[in-house]
Amino acid sequence: MLLVLCVDLDDDLGRKTGIPTPVIGDEDVTEAAVALATADPEDSDVNVLFQGVNVHDELAAEGEAVEVAAVTGVDGPDVKANRAVAQEVDRVLAELSTGEEVSAVVITDGAQDESVLPVIRSRMPIDGMRRVVVRQAQDLESLYYTIKQVLADPETRGTILIPLGVLLLIYPLVVVANLFDVAGAAVLGILSGAVGLYSLFRGLGLEETVDGAAESVRNVLYTGRVTLVTYVVALALIVVGGVQGVDTVDAVRGVQGGSLAAGTALAAFVHGFVQWLGVAGVTSSLGQITDEYLAGRFRWRYLNAPFYVVSIAVVLFAVSGFFLPDAPGVTALGLSELAMALAAGTLIGVLSTLAFAVAESQLPSADPV
Asked: What are the TM regions of this chain, as residue ranges (predicted)?
């Protein structure tokens, strides 16, 4: 038996008409084609369906045992779409349930849909494949209107015309730059870099990420979230801490009178940096706790965060100070002092955990939204 298989990899048929797939039988496939043509006359999958019915009718007229079916994938990655097509092909073969071997003639509208051919071939032999090309699309007039329609779309227009415009401006801008004694190579480099950054931006789909970040910032501003302020303060504290860490490295280097080993330099930087990092962590966590409380999602265990930050900062400050000599801005610690600092850091973390666990079990807290 021969199966004429119409492939719609991105599921235009299901998404635009709501018809469940797979569709089996020449009458059902014809009705599906008419429904898709009504919903979107410009969709090329309409021609695939009608071509499948046409091939079915030709083979049936020749006395061939033939059936026609339409299978779809999903509007997503090729692997996911191919798996969806495979499942529908299996359903078609199960519904045919003939005792004879089934082979296929695959009808597609382009190379993308043909990526599913190995999946179909793994289930039955493929006797032929036909790609549907609309004749009118080959005419110059049709090409003109196709380009006009593509450029009428704002997203496509921005994607194509902006880089093209920048490329066309490179030569005249270089000429103008030379007239004003500006290095033309610098202008060329700036414009090429702009085109490259734009291409990467569009190619990686970063516009959605940037739009989402901008929307989040607007929501934070309009809803009055405290974390906006505390994060800015925390960032400033981290920058100051980085500067302080570098100054501490210079101070230790001045005391030792030479270059520092990598471990000593790292300990000096951490010793100067961790105090400011701890304050930044406490500030940001307090802001987050405040927002959770205002939003009605407060939990007592959230109060552990600033204590954990302090505990970690105490441990890092003590350990780094243990490996450093006396120097301006350095608190050099002995072994007993290091042990006390480690014990204090551990106690801070453990006691805060126990205290807030008891508080959460005994005191009510807001239900999450």
From this structure: 158-176, 182-201, 222-240, 260-282, 302-323, 338-359
DSSP 206-238: HHHHHHHHHHHHHHHHHHT-THHHHHHHHHHHH
Domain boundary among 101, 133, 165: 133
Q: What pTM, to 2 d.p., does this model score?
A: 0.44
Q: Which domain holds residue 8?
A: 2-133
Confirm if 278 and 313 have CB atoms less than 8 A apart: yes
- How do residues 106-137 score in pLDDT, each as one tens digit? 998 876 777 888 899 998 999 888 888 765 54
Residues 255 and 357 in one domain: yes
DSSP 111: T
Q: Where are the beta strands (DSSP E) in 119-165?
A: 126-131
Distances (CA, A) of 50 to 29, 39, 44, 91: 8, 15, 10, 22
If asked whether residues 127 and 162 sit together in one domain, one would say no
Residue 141 lies in a domain: no
Instruction: Dump pLDDT digits (tens) for 258-299.
Output: 778 888 889 999 999 999 999 999 999 998 888 888 878 888
Tell me the residue ranges of DSSP E strands in the chain. Answer: 2-8, 23-24, 66-72, 103-108, 126-131
